[in-house]
Amino acid sequence: MTILLRLRNCNLKDLNSLYNILIGVDYMNFLKDYSFREKLIFITSISILFPFYISGAILIFDFIYIIMSEDFRDLNEDLTKYKCLSIFIFYSVFVSIVFNNFYGILATMAMGVIYIFFVFFRRYYNPKLFEITISAMLTISSFWFLNTALYGLNIYMNTESLNEFLKFVSVHRSDSVFFNPNYYGMVAGFMFLIGLNRLISSENKKEKMIYIAYLLLAAIAVFFSGSRGAQIALVFGAAYLSLKSNKRSTTFLLFAAMSIFLIIILKTGNIHSTRIATIKDDVVLRKAIWQKAISAIEQNFIIGAGPMGIHALYNTISSRLIIHSHNLILDFLVNYGLIGILLITPVIMSLVSEIRRVKNTEIYNIIVSMTIFVVIHGMMDVTIFWHQTAYIYFIFISSANKFQDKVEVGDMIRIPYGPIGAHSFKINY
Question: Which one of 47, 77, 182, 371 has the fewest CB atoms closer than 10 angstroms to its CB?
C-alpha cells in the first residue's frame, strides 16, 4: 500500500525517469547519433545475453560485413599489430587437421570470427559506447535474473521443506537462456561484479538501491545455476573489488549476507542437500580427467592437439563424455602445447601492458576482479572458452586502451551515460 501511495504521489517526470532506468529508452534514443559501426558493436554486445545461436549468428554476420566492407582494408594495419595471434589461429587449424580434430577446426574458425570482430571493436569502440553498452547489458540481464528468482520462488512455494527445495534445485539447475548452468553461472558472476562496481562508484542513494536489488538478483542467479566454481570464485572477485574501493561497509555487508546464508544452511542441517555434498565425487572425476590431460601433454607437449584436444584424444573418461580438461592451464597445454604458449604470450603481454597503464582507475579494478574470477573458476572448469563468457571478459580487457589518454588529464573520468545519469571512472592518486 505504501508503495502504491508513493507512486500515486510522484510526478510524471519521476515515472518517466524510472521507466528509462528499467527499459533503457534513453540509450536507444542516444544510439541514433551513433554510426552504423558503433550500432553494430552495441547490438552484438547485447546479443551475447541471448541464446548462443542468436549471438553466434550475429557474430557471423559481423564477420561477413567486416571482410566485405572497406573497414577490412582499414583493419589491415591493426591486424599486423597482432600477427602473433593471426599465426596462432592458423597454427590451431594446422594442429587440429593433424589430429583429425574436427571440433577443433570448428572451434578455431569461431576463434577467427571473434578475433576479426575484436580488432574491429578496438578500432571503433569508445568510452561513451562502452558505458551505454554495459548499462544495456545490466538492464537485459536483470530480466533473466528476475526470471530465475521467480523460478526459485515457485519451486520453494511448491516444496514441503527447505531440504526438499535444496535437493530439487541442486539437480534441476537453472541455465536461463544460456548453453548450460555453468556458463550461466559465469555470466551471472561477471554481471554481479559489474553491478558491484557500479554500486561502489555511485554517490546517489536511489542508484545504490537499484544496484543492491540488481546484485541480489545476480547472486540468486549464481546460486540457482549450481556452479560451485562460480560461487567460490565470485567471493574472491567481489572481495578484491570491494576492498580496493576502500568501501569497508560494502565489503562487510557482502560477507555478512553470505555468512548468514551459510549459517542458515548449516543450522538447518541441509548442507547435504546442496551440491556441496557431491564435491568429493566430482573431484574424483576431475582427478581422472587431469591425469589423462597430463598424459596428453606428455605425448604432445610441443604442438598440442588443437581446441577440445582431450575430446579428440580420449572422447570419454570414466564413462563420461569429456570436451575439455576442466582446468585452464592443463586445457591450454593439451590444446596448443609449447608452440601455442610462445605464440600467445606476446598478445597477453601487450594486453597486460595496456591494462597496467590504467592502474589508478576503476576499470583496472573491475578487470582485475574479473580476472581473479576467471582464474579461480578455471581451476575446476574452462567455461571462459565460450563466445558468450569470453565476449563479456574481452569487452573490458580490450577497452583499457581507450581510457589511457584520460588517465593523465585530471582527477576523474566522467561519462554522462550511466543508467541513472552520470557514471564516473575515478582516478585515485
Answer: 77
Nearest to 308 by CA among 343, 334, 340: 334
The answer to whether residues 133 and 47 touch, using CB atoms and an 8 Å cutoff, is: no
Buried b vs exposed e over 40-60: b needs ≥16 C-beta within 10 Å? bbbebbbbbbeebeebbebbe
122-172 residue pLDDT tens: 888 888 888 888 988 999 999 999 999 998 888 888 877 777 777 777 777
| Rounded-to-integer distance, Cα 339 and Cα 332, Å | 11
Q: Is 319 helix (H, G, I), strand (E, B) or coil?
A: coil
C-alpha cell at 314: 580420449
pTM > 0.70: yes
213 Cβ contact list (under 8 Å, min separation 6): none
DSSP 8-state secondary structure symbol assigned to residue 32: G
Task: Output the CA torsion sign for 334, 338, 343, 346.
Answer: positive
Q: Give the Cα-Cα-Cα angle 86, 122, 404 (nearest 5 degrees).
A: 120
Evaluated on CA atoms 310, 314, 318, 322, the torsion sign reads positive
The closest of 141, 259, 155 to 189, measured between CA atoms, is 141
* First-last CA distance in the chain: 48
Tell me, rounded to whole angstroms, the distance of Cα 22 from its chain centroid. Answer: 21
Q: Hunting for cell 571473434 — which residue is that?
A: 114
User: Which carries the bigger pLDDT value, residue 281 or residue 271?
Assistant: 281
DSSP class per residue in 224-263: HHT-HHHHHHHHHHHHHHHHHTT-HHHHHHHHHHHHHHHH
Alpha-carbon distance of 375 to 109, in angstroms, equals 25
